Amino acid sequence: MNSSSTSLLSFFLATIIFGLVAPATADTDNGVCTPTADYCWSCSGDTTNATTTYEVNLKALLASLSLVNQTNYEFYHNSLGDGTNKVNAIAMCRGDIAENDCRSCYTAASVILSQNCSNQHQAVIWAINCTVRYSNMSIFGIEEDEPTKFVPSPNNTSNLEQFKQVLNPLLKTLSEKAASGDSMKKFAAGHELVPGTNQTIYAIVQCSPDLDKENCTGCLDDAISDISNSTIDGKDGGRILKPSCSFRFENNRFYDLAVDSLPPAPSPTQGNTTSITTKVSPSSFFQLLLSLLCISSALF
Fold first, then answer.
1. Any idea where the Gnk2-homologous domain is (predicted)?
2. Could you tell me which of 166, 174, 214, 230 has the fewest CB atoms within 10 Å of its CB?
């Protein structure tokens, strides 16, 4: 069996498996999530008939996501059909996710969309490891801020004011780094210690890489501004999800440390010790000792 056949078989098997998953739960904001919020999605637009050419094209396009390869798995976009039956799709994986995990996420996300949204012209699904969206309208290179999905941690943060003083600047710094990415990846990860506590905030931000720098920055700025008026405010972690961008923060590291763009600064104690060790060599020590002996002889 060739790789294409294997991938398509995996897609259809996943359809059966996900049909057995516990039903999604609705939230007060846009969309629904699985019970653990590993997948959240929102369907919109006019409804279609299951036998329409549009839905046939949609299901074929979603199935093609399982065929991504090493060169295009991080960001994939494609269209299928013509005129009113044309479907446009965009898929991107989280910036620290390996190819196999990315493909698995695409497959699972496509199955959920096929089961829950295929009778509507537009939808987006946010997974822990990827985002997939489709529309009957052009979406490539166009910033889309809505719908917005909030996924808060169940836990409130301690030291709220100190936490906020670190969180927003951290997200802003990471947003600037992500927006400066290339046409395949606009992603940044980093962490920061909350002063006066033993708590560290770990965060990732990401834009759809077809956006230019200005639109990526604008999308993330809007998402960060949403914190204060959302269920995320005051929590020790959470996600704000938009079709074109998203961010996540937690009080424990959840991403690959290799992608961390904000390494911790060395502590002052370590820095001073290193400096002294480097500068005081054995020869320098004996020269200093000889000088002291000479001074002592002259005085006494």
1. 35-139, 145-254
2. 214
Contact 21, 38 (CB under 8 A): no
* Joined tokens for residue 57: 């094209």
pLDDT in tens, 256-290: 999 998 755 444 444 433 332 333 333 333 343 33
Per the CB < 8 A criterion, the answer to whether 88 and 122 are in contact is no
Q: Which of 96, 205, 211, 99 lies closest to 144 in space, CA to CA?
A: 211
Give the per-residue SS3 of 64-118: HHHHCCCCCCCEEEEEECCHHHCEEEEEEECCCCCHHHHHHHHHHHHHHHHHHCC
> What's the whole-model pTM score?
0.79
How many helices and strands (H and E) does the chain possess? 7, 12
- Residue-by-residue DSSP string for 183-213: SS-EEEEEEEEPTTSS-EEEEEEEE-TTS-H
Please state the separation of Cα 211 from the chain's center in Å.
15
